[in-house]
């Protein structure tokens, strides 16, 4: 006998709305996908629809990622036979689910796969998840390779599409063509997007982390920064500017003790 409902598993954050002859469906994405970097656990407490709790936490990241579940039920499709005659065709929940998954996964053309599948049971098994994640990663790797070739040819962001960026994000790869806004900060000195955690801005030379810069020998340790140094610099500090900001604006070359 056919089950009354079927479960669609979605591995990515992308949600999909499909208009089919038998109804409109939304297959939702998981709030916490994708996992960004190997070794970086997804944030605890973030809303996730469901989570693979089988296996130790030390499993590879791809097996530790969340997924979203969407339940669909059986429908009646109405076929138009012409002459105002119609035929009602029952569609099982499993058929609905398979049809939706087929539509979604084919969205990227030949051999595309967007990580959406029908679970055999109420929850996806580890094997189902592993197989689907492998297919998704393989598809995403092809997209990233295609974007690499496009970038090599054109060096233009215009020719890199959203799906290719999502692929890079999901795989946690860094690419020249893939701008990751959450992984950069603005240099307070020059406004350039830079990676966080570095001692000095490579663009303008601003010291971003004084302790780190001193430890690396980029500036003298415990360089005196005070009223004397500021007074002889010729430019009075902007009143109200926090010290930390002024520090950040100070280029490396001017970081040493100022002698008047
Ligand atoms: Zn800078």
List keywords for this structure.
single chain; 260 residues; alpha+beta; 3 domains; three-stranded antiparallel β-sheet; two-stranded antiparallel ribbon; 6 helices; disordered C terminus; binds zinc ion
Give the strand order of the largest sheet, numbering strands 1, 2, ... along the chain: 4-1-7
- How would you sum up the global shape? elongated
Helix content: 25-40%
N-end to C-end Cα span: 92 Å
Number of helices: 6
Strand-and-helix sequence, N→C? EEEEEEHEHHEEHHH
Uncertain ranges: 34-63, 228-260
**Total E-strand runs:** 9
Strand content: 15-25%
Radius of gyration: 27 Å
List all distinct small molecules, including ions and cofactors, that are bound in this structure: zinc ion
Structural class: alpha+beta
What does the largest sheet look like?
3 strands, antiparallel
Average pLDDT, rounded to a whole number, is: 78
Number of domains: 3
Question: Could you walk me through the main structural features you see in this protein, from its secondary elements to its overall organization?
Answer:
The chain is α+β, with helices and mostly antiparallel strands. The protein folds into 3 domains: 126 residues, no CATH class; 42 residues, no CATH class; 71 residues, no CATH class. It contains 6 helices and 9 strands. The strands form 4 sheets. A 3-stranded antiparallel beta sheet has the order 4-1-7, with helices on one face. The protein has a two-stranded antiparallel sheet with strand order 2-3. Strands 5-6 form a two-stranded antiparallel sheet. The longest helix has 29 residues. The chain is elongated and about 85 Å long. 23% of the residues are buried. The C terminus is likely disordered. Bound molecules: zinc ion. Zinc ion binds next to loops.
């Amino acid at each position: 006998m056919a089950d009354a409902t079927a479960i669609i598993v979605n591995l990515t954050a992308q949600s999909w709305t499909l208009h089919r002859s038998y109804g409109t469906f939304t297959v939702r994405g998981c709030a916490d996908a994708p996992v960004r970097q190997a070794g970086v656990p997804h944030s605890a407490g973030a809303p996730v629809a469901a989570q693979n709790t089988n296996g130790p936490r030390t499993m590879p990241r791809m097996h530790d990622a969340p997924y979203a579940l969407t339940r669909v039920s059986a429908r009646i499709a109405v076929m138009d036979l012409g002459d105002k005659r119609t035929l009602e065709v029952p569609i099982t929940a499993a058929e609905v689910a398979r049809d939706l998954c087929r539509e979604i996964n084919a969205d990227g053309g030949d051999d595309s796969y967007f990580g959406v599948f029908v679970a055999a049971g109420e929850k996806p098994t580890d094997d189902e998840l592993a197989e689907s994640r492998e297919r998704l990663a393989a598809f995403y790797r092809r997209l990233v390779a295609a974007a690499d070739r496009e970038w090599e040819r054109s060096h233009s962001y215009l020719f890199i599409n959203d799906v290719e960026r999502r692929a890079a994000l999901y795989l946690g790869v860094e690419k020249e063509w893939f701008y990751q806004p959450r992984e950069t900060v603005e240099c307070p000195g020059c406004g350039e997007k830079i990676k966080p955690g570095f001692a000095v801005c490579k663009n303008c030379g601003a010291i971003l982390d004084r302790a780190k810069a001193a430890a690396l020998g980029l500036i003298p340790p415990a360089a005196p920064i005070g009223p004397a140094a500021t007074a002889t610099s010729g430019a009075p500090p902007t009143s109200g500017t926090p010290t930390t900001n002024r520090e950040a604006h100070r280029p490396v070359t001017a970081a040493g003790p100022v002698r008047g």
